[in-house]
């Protein structure tokens, strides 16, 4: 059983590095935008096992640096986190939620109704594509 809570940005850095950028120094995980976003952590037995950062621009919300610890991947934690932030954005009257997805993760996002948009791009040795999901206003 996991719990998802809002956390301070600096609590995301170690897991960001572990799961996404293992060859980068810890200080490289800090983003200037962190100060303007919302950050969520998934906790299992009081240990932080998943992180995601969410940034709002009008009715548009981007999530970034979505990471789940390798020790607990494929246990539904990422799915719970993605549903949590999608529901959060809906409650905030967001119209669109999107990310720059690693190509290796497109199947995961597709299962939750995200669609590929645009072209593949390359950054820091990784291929990405933008994926988005439209949210209906209630």
Written overview of the protein:
The chain is of the alpha+beta class. It has a single domain (3-99), classed as Gcn5-related N-acetyltransferase (GNAT) (Aminopeptidase). Helix content is 20%, strand content 41%. The protein has 3 helices and 7 strands, in the order E-H-E-E-E-H-E-H-E-E. The protein has helices at residues 13-20, 77-91, 106-110; strands at residues 3-7, 38-44, 47-57, 60-68, 96-102, 115-123, 126-134. The chain has a 7-stranded mixed beta sheet. Strand 2 and strand 3 (47-57) form a beta hairpin. The protein is globular, with a radius of gyration of 14 Å. The model has no long low-confidence stretch (mean pLDDT 92).
**Could you give the order of the helices and strands?**
EHEEEHEHEE
Q: Strands of the biggest beta sheet: in what spatial order?
A: 1-2-3-4-5-7-6
Structural class label = alpha+beta
Shape summary: globular
- Please give the CATH class: Alpha Beta
Describe the sheet with the most strands.
7 strands, mixed
Could you tell me the radius of gyration in angstroms? Answer: 14 Å
Q: What is the helix content? A: 10-25%
CATH H level, superfamily name: Gcn5-related N-acetyltransferase (GNAT)
Mean of residue pLDDT?
92
Number of helices in the DSSP assignment:
3
Number of domains: 1
What is the rounded distance between the termini? 30 Å
Q: In the CATH hierarchy, what is the architecture at level 2?
A: 3-Layer(aba) Sandwich
């Amino acid at each position: 059983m996991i719990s998802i809570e809002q956390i301070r940005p600096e609590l995301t850095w170690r897991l960001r590095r572990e799961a996404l950028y293992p060859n980068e120094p810890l200080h490289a995980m800090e983003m200037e935008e962190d100060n303007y976003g919302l950050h969520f952590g998934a906790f299992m037995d009081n240990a932080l096992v998943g992180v995601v950062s969410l940034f709002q621009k009008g009715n548009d919300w981007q999530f970034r640096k979505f990471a789940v610890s390798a020790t607990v991947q494929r246990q539904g934690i990422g799915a719970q986190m993605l549903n949590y932030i999608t529901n959060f954005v809906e409650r905030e009257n967001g119209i669109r939620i999107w990310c720059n997805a690693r190509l290796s993760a497109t199947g995961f996002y597709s299962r939750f109704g995200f669609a590929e948009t645009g072209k593949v791009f390359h950054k820091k040795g990784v291929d990405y594509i933008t994926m988005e999901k439209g949210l209906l206003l209630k």
